[in-house]
Amino acid sequence: MDKPVEAPVIEGVADLFRKIETFTRAREAQASGYYPYFVPIADSSANEVVIDGQTLVMAGSNNYLGYTHDPRVLEAAETAARRYGTGCTGSRFLNGTLDIHEKLERDLAEFCGKEAALVFSTGFQTNLGTISSLVGKNDVVVIDKLDHASIVDGCRLSYGEIRRFRHNRPAELESVLAGIDPKRGRLVAVDGVFSMEGDLAPLREIVPLCRKYGARLLVDEAHAVGVMGANGIGASEELGVVDDVDLLIGTFSKSFASIGGYVAGSESTIHYLRHHARSLIFSASMPPYAVATVQKTLDLMKEEPERRARVKEIGDRMRAAFHAMGFDTAASETPIIPIVIGPLEGTFVFWKRLFEEGVFTNPVVPPAVPEGSCLLRTSYMATHTEAQLERIVASVKKVGHELGVIS
Hints:
The protein is of the alpha/beta class. The protein has two domains: 25-58 and 305-402, Aspartate Aminotransferase, domain 1 (Alpha-Beta Complex), CATH 3.90.1150.10; 71-303, Type I PLP-dependent aspartate aminotransferase-like (Major domain) (Aspartate Aminotransferase, domain 2). Helices cover 41% and strands 16% of the residues. It has 15 helices and 14 strands. The strands form three sheets. A seven-stranded mixed sheet has the order 4-10-9-8-7-5-6, sandwiched between helices. β8 (216-220), α9 and β9 form a beta-alpha-beta unit. α4 packs parallel to α12 (288-303), α7 runs parallel beside α8 and α13 (305-325) runs parallel beside α15 (386-402).
């Protein structure tokens, strides 16, 4: 391969690529053998993966209901691909709308208890398109400091002002809302379940604040849909406020075992988004097999509530087991259970040792978490077997003692 042509160095002129030359942290981690990212998986089943010939229990997936390898889901995806092809090769706005897109949207709206829904090609694009098209230059969007990056970037792409409040602090949210000129439009955007900490937004306190100050409320149910609530709608249903939420956002890359995302709300809001959300209008639409996968998992989600009960029971059990060992699991209330280690280096070492013990987890470091609060993110599936859960517990305990994280 030819060596890239280097830009000429001009005295007094900054080089855009200078930051590339000074970025060394990742290569240093790779050289040390403790680089935990972009690990190629060679094969997988519902709850195990094969990496470099080693089979590991997957304790880091968002496949909460375990549908990614379900034969019924695979058959639905294959059937759709054979009928519609492998892709739509166009946006929803032009040639990329299929009848199955519209059926899925109707069914999602009914599932969420809203008038209408709209699907996007990724969950990330859903927040980008929704927030950036609704928040204008005279508006303010208020977000939790630990909101997902897609919410943050949706805010950045809008022309509005961004204000933040400390994580799950309703009193601070009220202070922010009270300080906004009543003539300005307001949107409060929060995760229903926070993806790293595994805790819920205090929606019972947030809803009355939005009413008091005339703010609209968006809740991202990405990690809650399928898991939380009597019907699996998400944290808003779990906390009894689903009818008070203006916009429900969700992703298909977790409980729905596919790729894509949705927003559900009033018919007039969805109509507006269909004609203004740039990440919808200028992106190719969800491929047919992905749509069929989501449709089938949505149907199964309604038919098999025992999966939701199972994954919640597993989460409670694993959290209790880690607590009993002396681990800090932050404020987790869900099948997302962080194991807080603290230092970055110690977190990578813990991850590597668990990997060697045959357990796959996800190390989470700044900026995803505050400095000094690095953690291993573990998450659980309805399809985890008793033997696999016992293996995870035993491995975490062994490594924790070995590294002196627990006594």
